[in-house]
Amino acid sequence: MFKLLRISLPIILAVFAFTGCRTQPPTPISDGGLSGYDSDGIIPGMDSDWSTADGLEPRDDDAAINAEDNTYNGRPMVRGVLQNVYFGFDEFSISATERFKLQAAADHLAANPSDGLLIEGYCDYYGTEDYNLALGDRRANSARDYLATLGADTNTVDTLSKGGLEATAGISKSESGKDRRVELIILK
After folding, report:
1. For 128-160, how does the pLDDT look when each residue is reduced to its tens digit (9 = 90+)?
2. Cys-Cys with 163: which of 110, 133, 179, 188 at CB 3.0–4.6 Å?
3. Where are the domains of the chain?
4. What pTM was estimated for this model as a whole?
């Protein structure tokens, strides 16, 4: 066994040594190595300030909500009729104990075809703002997808992530359970 190891180990090492990746130095920009770009690496005619380039302004999802008259895209919002759906820490799947709340929402939409539904996803304050906005979005979309499995018309359902923007800071993970939710808001 030892003799076989003494013979095969140098062969294996030699194979790895001779088949390694060859490195290539980077192409200098000043020599025109990047076709179509200027010496700063910018496409000629493009604004180097990406924040003000046409079409790249940050989207303000809250612009659809008018807090003064409590509307979303011009439709009155009715809160409190449907119960909030709660989630575990860092989770976005609908637990079996919360599914009846979405069944009630699906039943409401079936009985009131002119109504719509806004699903707002919320998180606790743990995690970065970007992560919590993404998690709130996954929670809202998870609730919408579950409504689809119940036969609800998801063309009347909008989702919006609030992330941890309205969460209570400085409390324990168990106390912050009320912040890990989606709110089901009826749109008249």
Report:
1. 999 999 999 999 999 999 999 999 999 999 999
2. 133
3. 81-187
4. 0.66
